[in-house]
Structure formats: structure tokens, C-alpha cells
Amino acid sequence: MTIGTVVPALLAQGATAIRDTLLVRPLSPVRSPFEELVYIASGLTSILTLLLVVALVIALLAVRRAVQRAHDTFDRRLQDFGRRLDDFNALLGRAHSQADRVVDMTGAAISGVEWGADKVKDFVKRKRRPRNRKRRGEGPSGEGPADAPRPSPDAPRGPRKESADESPYDDDRE
């Protein structure tokens, strides 16, 4: 069957059906005042529900945009904090290296002081005369002239008189 034979057959069927068709005007149903109120409320509810959904979508988009801005701000602050932390670590590293230099210099100064103290001790030992040696004019025990009275051990001692061959830095303590 070809298309040329199908189309005229359908048109012939439609032409016969048109004369049997009744034109009817639809009428709205008769409603009571309560039914009319419910009908209007139902329509308003549908419209308000649609508006509520649209408002929620708009609010969600606004919240999403605010969260995105907050996230971007947080990222910028975090990067700024990272830079400041890097600066602080660099400063701390410099302070640590300066502290190491101070420790090294202190160690060198202490070793220099110890070296100087050793040299002074060696110098003093070479220049020191033994104290139990008799001096000129002393008695047999080495305490002074033989005819001189002995001082009491509780007597106050005056300032020490230094001779030319004694150093003021001589000390019995070691």
C-alpha cells in the first residue's frame, strides 16, 4: 500500500465524521460559596508553592555564592598566614644562627680566658718564691729576728707589706 492511497482514505473517513460532530460549549459547574473559596484557595496555594520553590532556589544560590566568597576569603587569609609563617620561620632561622654565633664566640672567649689563666698561673709559679725559705735577719724558725717578740695569733694583722720581689697577685690558693 502506498502513501497515495492511505491519505485519501483517511480524508474520506474524516469528511463523513464531521457531519455527526456536535459543537458543545463547556460550562463551569455551579458551586456553593464554600466550594468557590476552596477553589480559589487551591489556586493560590499552587501559585504560592511555585513562588516558594523559586524563592528557595534563589536563596540557595545566594547562600552558595556567600559560601564561595567565604571560601575564597579563607584561602586568601590562609595563604597570607602561610607567608607570615614563612617570614617568621626565616626570622627564627636568622635568630638561631645568631645564637649559634654567640655560643661559638662565647666558647672562644671562654677558651681564651682559660688559656690566659693558665699562662698567668705558669707565670706566677715561675716567679713565686717558696715561703718557708729563710729571709735575711730571721731567726732559726724563719718567723722573724731571733730577739723579736712573737705576735699573738689573735692580734689583728695590718696591711701586708710587699717587697720588690713579691707580686701582689701571689696567692697560696690553688
Keywords:
single chain; 174 residues; mainly alpha; 2 helices
Write a structural description.
The termini are far apart. The chain has helices at 3-18, 33-127. It has a domain at 33-112. The longest helix is centred in the middle third of the chain and has 95 residues, at 33-127. The chain is built from 2 helices and no strands. It is mainly α and 174 residues long.
Element layout with pairings:
Blueprint: H1 3-18, H2 33-127
Structure summary:
This protein has two helices and no strands. The chain is mainly alpha-helical.
Separation of the first and last Cα atoms: 136 Å
Query: Any idea what the radius of gyration is?
Result: 60 Å
Coarse morphology: rod-shaped
Structural class: mainly alpha
Strand content: under 5%
Largest sheet descriptor: none
Q: Runs with pLDDT <50, length 5+?
A: none
Secondary-structure element series: HH
Number of strands: 0
Mean pLDDT: 79
Helical amount among residues, as a percent range? 55-70%
Oligomerization category of the chains in this entry? single chain
Number of helices: 2
